[in-house]
Design a protein that fits this description.
mainly alpha; BCCT family transporter; about 600 residues; membrane; single chain; cell membrane; transmembrane; transmembrane helix; 4 strands
């Protein structure tokens, strides 16, 4: 039901700086002081003492198509106020938690014995459905580009009178934070170098099928062409496609929460399709899939982080790099993440994120300055050109024979990004209120993509240069050790390697902490102020799943679960695209 807000005072063009600062602080904490209600909802449940006087989400400002529903956040929740308080959505929390716990127990009961099963699952999904993942990725990119140039791009998140909660500099910095993570640390050296090596080797055919891992047709014996193709393939996996996936989720969440007045959960996006039924089993299934996808997507990243941190400690300090070390490391880091949850977002995640951002920038600048500086700076633009040239061939799922590359790399990546999308999407949605759809999509697609290009060019390009210079130690090392082997060829290797280990560990902590907040928000029916013990529970679950997957099948198991949970959620996101367009059309009609 469409209705403009009633009795709302006109927007004051003379903004009060003190009010703006208070608003920004509240937005950073995930809350905004309440203003005049656009409609009169039932009173919210009482908040903890320190949260009194604030609402979890801001109200729409200006005429918006607020969805008239009798549902209130938390009405289906089960609450307890004993020594361990809880506030969980029934049945989303119970089914999600039970499924993850059962999976973890079964996998830990048979350590190492399930690897063939995980390998078969991963190969079956990526081998038979690579075309589906790739087509879905193309749909997300085309939708974002279409919205940017369409009249729907003028719709403002939060209502036509909403103003951004953060200035451009702060907003770009947070998009940069969302774009950085364990994946860039793990694959920053290994992926460009791996694609370069495979392309240099050219195509290899056995029994009529290609067995090499080169992208497209490779570049046998041509070092410059192999570098160009390898960097284009790497940027393809870290550029527009993953960020279009995140942007679709973030935009849909922001629109239906900030403009439509619905809870900040995935089910709200599907109101144009299911109507009031989203509060029943259709919505339960969507939120359960979101919890499972996020849990296993995070576990994949945490497992990669544990592999790389353990390899770095063994390389730098001579510590053991076996499963015992990995498990001890995951347990220790999970405990630190739990402490971060207890001290709160302001003192925990925010400070750790600021530390990590500073270290990541310093490491990037160091590699650019002491590495092949001119090659990196010119390579940045050359790599962008290579990406633009090869984008269409790399995006095409049909008529290609580079099965290993397409299935083993691209299909896995797309499934991994999709499983991460509720996590990253909700973070981006939380900090993007007040932007137009056009501003939002342009920034979310372009800023993190350019940062990823620079990161891969600096680290991967340096590794390729060192390899072409005759040093083969990076290529010969395991994937998780290649970053440290590359840093070992530069000055101050001990210091930079230690910084690399710290980056991986802190990314682990912040990913676990922030991920637990997103998962708990969904499992609590949209509440962002649910009791702390619930977030501690999810932090522990993420660590346990990462341990189970590492012991149950290592990297193969991590990839298998990311793909298997990403598959059903891909269907969910394709439906979200349709609902998003319907929601934007209704919003645009309200302004006409």
């Amino acid at each position: 039901m469409s209705q403009p807000p009633k009795d709302r005072p006109a927007r004051d063009p003379a903004r009060d700086p003190a009010r703006d600062r208070a608003r920004e602080e509240d937005a950073l904490r995930g809350r905004i002081p309440p203003g005049k209600a656009a409609k009169a909802p039932p009173p919210p449940p009482p908040l903890p003492v320190e949260e009194e006087g604030v609402e979890p989400l801001p109200e729409p400002e200006g005429p918006t198509e607020i969805i008239d529903t009798e549902y209130t956040i938390g009405q289906d929740n089960i609450e307890g106020t004993g020594r361990v308080p809880y506030d969980i959505h029934n049945p989303v929390f119970g089914i999600s938690a039970a499924a993850v716990v059962i999976f973890t127990i079964v996998t830990l009961m048979f350590p190492g014995q399930l690897e063939p099963a995980f390998s078969g699952l991963r190969d079956a999904l990526t081998g038979n459905l690579d075309w589906f993942f790739m087509l879905a990725g193309n749909v997300f990119v085309l939708l974002c580009l279409g919205l940017i140039v369409s009249p729907l791009g003028s719709v403002r998140l939060g209502g036509p009178d909403a103003t951004p909660d953060f200035n451009l500099t702060g907003w770009f910095a947070m998009l940069f934070a969302a774009g950085m993570g364990i994946g860039l640390m793990f694959y920053g050296v290994s992926e460009p170098l791996g694609h370069f090596e495979a392309a240099m080797g050219g195509t290899v055919t056995e029994g009529g099928l290609r067995t090499d891992w080169a992208p497209l047709g490779g570049a046998e014996g041509n070092a410059e062409e192999a570098r160009r193709l390898g960097m284009a393939a790497t940027i393809f996996h870290w550029g527009l496609h993953p960020w279009a996936i995140y942007a679709v989720v973030a935009l849909a969440l922001a629109l239906f929460a900030y403009n439509k007045g619905l809870p900040l959960t995935l089910r709200s996006v599907f109101y144009p399709i299911f109507g009031e039924r989203i509060w029943g089993w259709p919505g339960h299934v969507i939120d359960i899939l979101a919890v499972l996808a996020t849990t296993f997507g995070l576990a994949t990243s945490l497992g990669l982080g544990a592999e790389q941190a353990t390899a770095g400690l063994a390389f730098l300090f001579g510590l053991g790099d076996g499963n015992v070390t990995k498990v001890v490391l995951i347990v220790a880091i999970t405990l630190v993440a739990a402490v971060s949850v207890v001290v709160g977002v302001e003192k925990g995640v925010k400070r750790l994120s600021e530390l990590n951002m500073g270290l990541a920038v310093l490491l990037l600048i160091f590699v650019i300055v002491v590495g092949p500086t001119m090659a990196i700076l010119t390579g940045f633009f050359a790599n962008l050109g290579a990406y633009a040239t090869e984008l269409l061939p790399l995006s095409n799922p049909f008529g290609r024979d580079d099965d290993n590359f397409r299935q083993g790399w691209t299909a896995f990546y797309w499934a991994w990004w999709i499983s991460w999308s509720p996590f990253v999407g909700m973070f981006i949605a939380r900090v993007s209120r007040g932007r137009t759809v056009r501003q939002f999509l342009t920034a979310v697609l372009i800023v993190p993509s350019l940062i990823s290009v620079l990161w891969m060019t600096a680290l991967g390009g340096t590794a390729i240069d060192i390899t072409l210079g005759g040093y083969t130690g990076i290529l010969d090392a395991p994937l998780e050790l290649e970053l440290f082997q590359m840093l070992n060829q530069l000055p101050l290797a001990a210091i930079t390697s230690f910084v690399g280990i710290v980056l991986v560990v802190v990314f682990f902590i912040t990913s676990s902490d922030s991920g637990s907040l997103v998962i708990d928000t969904i499992a609590a029916g949209g509440k962002i102020n649910a009791p702390v013990p619930q977030r501690i529970f999810w932090v522990g679950i993420e660590g346990a799943v990462a341990i189970a997957l590492l012991l149950g099948g290592g990297l193969i198991a991590l990839q298998a679960m990311a793909v298997s949970t990403g598959l059903p959620f891909t269907v969910v996101l394709l439906g979200a695209c349709y609902a998003l367009v319907k929601g934007l059309i209704a919003e645009r009609r309200e302004l006409a």
